[in-house]
Amino acid sequence: MEKTRMGPEIVSDFIASLKKDASLNQDIVLIIASLHEQGKLTDKAIANKLEDMRKQRLDETSKNNPEKL
Amino acid sequence: MKLQKITLKNFRGARGPVSLALRNGQSLLLYGENGTGKSSFADAVEWFITNNVSYLSGEEIERYGGLRNAFSKQTDECFVEIDFTPDKKGKKTLNYEKEKLNAQFLDQSSADLANLFQNERFLLRNKELVSFILATKTGRLLEISRIIGFDDVVNAKEVFKKAFYNIKSVLDFRAFESQIATKKKLILEKLQATVNTREQFFSAIDARITIFNPGFRVQDKHSLAKAQQFLKTGADDKELKLKNTLELGNKGIGDQLAKISVLHQQVASLINEIADLKKNHENIKQISLSRLLDEAEKILNFHEKDECPLCQQQISRETLLTLIGGRILALKQTQNKLKTVQDSKENLLSVLREIYQDLKSQLNSLKQLSIAGLDLQPSLNKLSIIEAVGKELNKDVLVIEINKLRLDETCQRAFEELQNKIVTIIHSQKIGDSSQKVDLLTHISVCEVAFDEIERLEQEKAVIEEQRTTLEKILSSFIAVQRDEMKSFLKSINAQVNEYFIFMNHGKKIDTIELSTVDKSDGEFAGISIQLKFHGQPVSSAKKYLSESYLNCLGLCIFVASMKLFNTKSKFFILDDVISSFDKAHRVRFGQLLLEKFSNFQILVLTHESEWFDFMTNTVKGSGWKITQSRWNAEEGTFLEAPSGELKEQIRERIEANNESGLGNLLRRYAERMFKELCFDLEGEVKFRFNDHNEKRMLDELFSTLRGRLKEKSDLSDADAVKRLSTSKFITNQASHDSLYKENIDDLKAVYDDLSDFDGLFRCSSECKQRVSTSNMNRAKKTISCKCGDKEINWKD
Fold this sequence. Notes:
heterodimer, A: 65% helix, elongated, B: six-stranded mixed β-sheet, 26 helices
C-alpha cells in the first residue's frame, strides 16, 4: 500500500516546502508559516499581515531613497 | 496503544468522577438512551487528543464552557483522565482561572501522549455520516475529507483561495494603471517630455530651463532645488501662489476624474451584484436562521423520532435532515455571496472617500484665492452628490437603494468644466519673461508632486503584484497537492473500501464500488465521485442507485478503511451512534464486519438503538467485550451500569475509607440491582410498563414486590433482615436528594449491612456464590436452591 499522509501533516509539509521555493516571496511564506504555527491561519489574518507588509515596504523605500524629490 | 480506562469529572454529562474501565484494552459495547451521556466518553477522548469536540462550535466550548458539566460550579474541578495500554496515563483539566476557562495537561507526558495521536483517525459520529449521505459531489469531497481527517487540507485551501482573491480585488480597486497614466499625461503636458525615470525627469526640466541660461545643468535633486530658486528670483509672489494653486488644482481634479471614470464601472458591477442579492431576498432574510438550523441539525442527530422536535409535525427524521441540510447549504451560499458584495462595497467606499476628500481640498484651496471668472458653485453642488453616494454606500448592503449609487454624468462633467476653466485661466496669464519663469516653476512643482506619486503608486503596485503572484503560486501548488494526496489516498483505500462494502452487501445488486477525484474544466480539483456497478452495469450517480442505508454503509467503510490505513499509534476507534440510518440487514452485517475484520482493534461502539444493542450483545458474547449501559440522574450525572459485584467493591472501599461522598447513590444502585436480580430469580412480578420505562423502578416498588413474593412462597418474609429493610428510610425514600432524610456514614454503613444480610438470605456462601433461583426448584422438597445446591430455601409450589 502506498504511503499516505493525514490532513494536518499534508498542510504542515506543504508550508515547510514553501520555504524552499525561491520563486516565492519568502516574507509572505514566513507570514503563512507563523500564522499556521499559531493555529491562526485565516484569510483575514493573511490580508492584515500583507497590508502591514506593504506599508512597511513603502516606508522603508521612502526612507532609503535619498533621491526622492 | 489501546484505551484502558477513561475517567471523567464534571465533563459533559458526567459529574462523577465516573470511570469506564476497559480491561487490557478490551472492546466496548455501550448502550444508553439519548441524554444519558454515553457520548461524553467519545467527547472526552476527542477533547483530550485534539482539544476540540468537532460538533460543538469554538464559541460553545470557549465562551459558554460547553464541555463542563452544566450543573457544575465554576469552582468544581473538571478533568478527563485516560489510561492507555501499556501503562501510560494522561490527564487534562478544564478549570476556571480568574473567570476564564483554561484547558491544561497535568504534565508533559500527558501532552506528549495526546500529541502521539494527533494525526490519527479514531472517532466517527452519526453527524458525519448523515452529512456524507446528503452531500453533492463537491460537498462529498468535504464530507469524505472530514471522515478521513482531511479537514485541515480543505480548510487550508479555502484560506489560500480567499487570500488570493482578496489581494486580487485590492489590485482591481486601486486601478493603478489608470492613476499612473493620468499623472504621466500631466507631466507630458507640462514638461513636454515622456518621463519614466528620475533621470528623464531631471533631463526634461533641464531642457526647459536652458532658455533662461541658468548657467548650470539640472541633473539631480540638488541642482533641481537650485533651478527652482533661480526661477523664483524676481518672481511676483502673488502670481506664483495663484499659478501654483491653479496648477495643483488642475492636477488634483484630473487625478480624481481618472478615478471617477474607473469608479463608474465598479459601481455598475456593484449595482448588478446587489440586484442579484436582492433577488434572493427571502434567503438573505433567513441568513440569521443559519445558526438556528445548525443547532436543529445537531439536535436531530440525537432525536430519533419521526417528528419535528419543534412543532411536533409528523415527518420522517431523514426527510427532515435532508430538508435542513439543503437549507443550510443554500443559506451558506447566500452568506458567501453577501460577504463578497460587502467586501466590494467596502473597497468602493474607500476609493470614493479618497475622491471626495481630495476634490473637497482642491475646491477649498481654489475658493481661498477668489479667482475672478472661476465659479466653483456647480462643482461644490456636485461634491454633495458624491457625498450622498458615499452615505448610501456606508449603509448595510441589503438596505442600499441602487438608484442612489449612480454618480450621474453631470457630476463628472461639472468637474471637467472646472478643470477646463482652470486651464484657460492658466493660459490667459500675461506672457512676459517673469511670467514664463513662474509658469515653468509651477509646472516643475506640480510635476514633482505627480512624479513622486507615480513612484509611490508603482512601488505599491509592484508590492501587491508580488504578493498576488506568490499567493497565486501557493494556491495552485496547494490545489495540486490536495488533488494528488486525495488521489493517492483513494488509490490506496479503494480496494479496502470495496472489500468492506461488498462484505456488508454480500449477494446484493452492487458489485464493485470505487471513489475517484473530479476536476473542473479549468483544472481545479472539484470533488469526489462514486462509481459503482449496479447489476453489473457501471453507473456514477451514487445517490440515484444507493439508498440511504447503502450510503451510510459506504461512509462507514471509508472511515474504517482510512483508520486502518492511517493509524500507526492507536489500535482503537470509537463509533458513536453510527448505525442510525442503517436498515436491519446492514446492521447485522456491520456487527459481523467489526468482529471479523477488526478483531485486533479495540472498538468502542456507543449506541442508543436497543435492538441493535441486543443483537450486538449476542454477537460479541464470549469475545471479551465489555458490555454496559449508561444512565443519568441529576445528582451523579452520567454513570455506568455496573455488575453488583463491582458496585459492592466500590461501596466497601468507601466504607473502609469512611468516605460518604456518593456512597448513598452507590448503595441505591447496588440495592436496585440486587432487587431486580432477585425479582428475576424469584419471579417477582411488577406492573407492566412499556419499553425502557420497564427498567425505571423505585426501590420501594421492587422491595414490596419481593416481600409479597416471599410472603406468598416462603417463610422468609418475617426474617429479621427483611423486617429491617421494610422499615428502612433508605428504601422508603424515593430519591437520594430527598431533603427529609440526610444520610451520614454510620447510617450508610448500617444500610450496607442490612442489604448484605438480605442478600445473604438467598446467596450461597460455599462453592458457587450464586443466589437461589426458581429455575432450580425441587418440587418434591418444595425448595429452590443455588446452582451447586448448598443454599436452599423453602418454596411453595
